[in-house]
Design brief:
three-stranded parallel beta sheet, 12 helices, alpha/beta, 43% helix, Rossmann fold, seven-stranded mixed beta sheet
């Protein structure tokens, strides 16, 4: 464990130190990066908390030399995922700005990231969609778009077989949001996996901000499914699961990173039950820079960071690392550094990029809710015996 601490500490120095290796306080003209995500509408609080998390990480970066000796700053640019015309107006404005070196979060929601993809490519502007979690619908990524989160297509082939074996699953109830691109795309991945195990699949769906799921719950009870799977935004997944538990559906639940979001726990009102997911970070990891960040966040906000607040900080550290590896502070040099980034230490292990697109991860952090409804890492020994 001590060796891991040393690796993490060295990784942070590499990530936030200046190009010449000096770790004095960053000075000079700040490098300002637009944080492009939702700051208005129904999910306005999302952007504010994510920005705060990134800004705290930026403080840590700047204390260790910043980027090429200069401090970095993140500032808000509103791209509401539920108002695509407004979102794209902001995307185009950011892309036209010659001073923009990187777009931080690239729109946030997968729907916006996908829509911004072509604009960013034409502008030859590196775009880091670190909170985009939907299965990528385009044939490929351009050279300028990078993502970070573990994805359903790579994480669920690790998690789902374990759940199927442990609970002797024969049928699944698939609950998804039918008017939200990312949940629809992710639901297709779940279905393809379920078919590999010859599982019976019962689909039920709702729309964003659905208030009533009684009909869907009744259908799943009638089909007597063995497992529930959600492909939704956190608030929608919480609404569905609360009503499912209240309606007598006590089957295990599997879901993507929406289950790790703090809103899922808060809105579920003590009715989560047995629930499995793949995680973004483990708050018990003793890595010094992670624990330093957690302590700073709690001191400044009075609360523990949620997983997505942690991923925003993680993304800030990654941006600093990549920019410090770039030969020059211009878009092309940064793109080249990002495309070749390898073994970058993050809150969930090391990641690499072989060109643009998805981060390549060394492993999957499998988590579940314990009896106290705390999200915890699942030890491999847990899967040894059937339920």
């Amino acid at each position: 464990m001590k060796f891991r601490w040393l690796i993490a500490a060295a990784a942070l120095s590499l990530a936030v130190g200046s190009a010449d290796g000096a770790f004095a306080q960053a000075k000079g003209e700040p490098i300002r990066l637009p944080h492009l995500t939702t700051f208005s509408g129904a999910a306005a609080s999302w952007g504010e908390t994510m920005l705060k998390a990134a800004q705290i990480a930026a403080q840590m970066v700047n204390e260790k030399g910043g980027v090429h000796g200069r401090p970095i700053e993140f500032y808000p640019e509103d791209a509401p995922y539920d108002n695509m015309p407004n979102a794209m107006t902001t995307v185009k404005k950011v892309a036209r700005d010659p001073n923009t070196l990187i777009v931080f979060d690239c729109g946030g929601a997968t729907t916006v990231v996908a829509a911004a993809h072509d604009v960013m490519g034409e502008a030859k502007l590196p775009c880091f969609g670190f909170s985009s979690a939907g299965h990528w619908r385009k044939p490929a990524f351009n050279e300028w778009t990078f993502r970070l989160l573990p994805q359903v297509a790579t994480a669920m082939p690790v998690l789902l077989p374990k759940v199927v074996k442990k609970h002797n699953i024969k049928s699944v109830g698939m609950a998804f949001t039918n008017n939200d691109e990312a949940p629809v795309a992710n639901a297709k991945v779940y279905r393809d996996l379920a078919k590999q195990f010859n599982l019976k699949i019962v689909d039920v769906s709702g729309q964003l901000k659905e208030a009533e799921y009684r009909a869907q719950v009744t259908k799943l009870k009638g089909e007597n499914v063995d497992l529930l799977i959600t492909s939704m935004q956190p608030e929608d997944a919480a609404q569905f699961m609360r009503q499912a538990r209240e309606g007598g559906l006590n089957q295990p639940l599997v879901g993507g990173i929406e289950l790790t979001d703090k809103h899922f726990k808060e809105l579920n009102k003590g009715k989560i039950g047995t629930a499995y997911t793949y995680g973004i970070y483990d708050s018990t990891d003793p890595a010094p820079y992670l624990q330093d960040y957690l302590a700073r966040f709690k001191k400044e906000t009075g609360k523990e960071p949620g997983p997505f607040e942690a991923i925003a900080a993680d993304a800030a550290f990654i941006v600093a690392h990549v920019m410090n590896q770039a030969k020059k502070l211009d878009r092309e040099s940064i793109r080249q550094a990002w495309s070749a980034a390898s073994g970058v230490q993050t809150f969930t292990g090391k990641v690499s990029w072989k060109g643009s697109g998805e981060a390549l991860r060394e492993g999957v952090l499998i988590q579940m809710y314990d009896k106290g409804e705390n999200l915890v890492r699942v030890p491999e020994s847990y899967w040894g015996a059937g339920s």
